[in-house]
Amino acid sequence: MTLRRLLTTIALGLGLLACEGPTLPIPPPAALSAPDGDGFVRLTGEAPPSSLVAAFNETQDQGVLGVADDEGRYELRLRANAGDAVSYFYFLADGSRSGIGDLIVPAPPP
Question: How many angstroms separate the CA atoms of 90 and 42, rounded?
Fold first, then answer.
């Protein structure tokens, strides 16, 4: 599944295409961890409070959704390997959405 298809699926599911708003800047995540022993990374950061936050592993064609808390903090757990390409973005209830940020999963420390 491509990122465009994932975004369209999410938008349709949330009814956002009919009220599509402007694209907003996306703040960089505070951290993207190296894969843990179970093959997951943690993506943490800030977005507008209560926004729907998504991360999509372009390499493995898998994604995850979460909701920023009332202070705008989020933490997502995504299956990934070192070197995988990960995109992240958010949607607001009013139909506005962020741009897409891109990251590469770091290798674990030696």
Answer: 16
